[in-house]
Amino acid sequence: MRTEATQRVELVFNLLDANDNGVLDAGDFTLMASRVVRAAPAADEAAKDALRAAFRRYWTTLVDELDADGDGRVTFDEYSACVLSPERFTATVTEFAEALAALGDPDGDGLIERPAFLALMTAIGFERPNIEALFDAFGPDAEDRIAVAVWVEGIKDYYAPDKAGIAGDHLVGSVTV
What we know:
The chain has helices at about 5-15, 25-40, 45-65, 75-80, 85-105, 115-125, 130-135, 150-160; strands spanning about 110-115, 145. By secondary structure, the chain is mostly helical. The protein is globular, with a radius of gyration of 15 Å.
């Protein structure tokens, strides 16, 4: 696994531990889904439900695949040992990426405006300068929008253990503004 992927894994684990108890559990994913849905008030209920379902599937996949001791929790060691196994998580990551991006496109025009992107990524827990750097790396158009498909691919790249130098690397570490 590339160093960049290891850094991304650590960051995502810490963000997903929404209740800050040091492990991932079902409550983390319910809490995170609630935070993200609240950040998208203009989204329709179907998009909100799809995101909630994507978080539930994310948790179910993690606990089914990674909970080595069967305690219903995923430790960082369990998470980091396997989470970036594309064959185990591709469908789950794709569902999550599509649901999150759709939530950011409430008018269905295939474009996500910067404020919606910032709100969703802030709700997940990423730092504002990093979010701004990521949005810029996605190449917004003259009206400061990115394509839904670009964000979906960016999320999928983020979870790929063999990727480096990707837009998502802007989320790791500090960014100078």
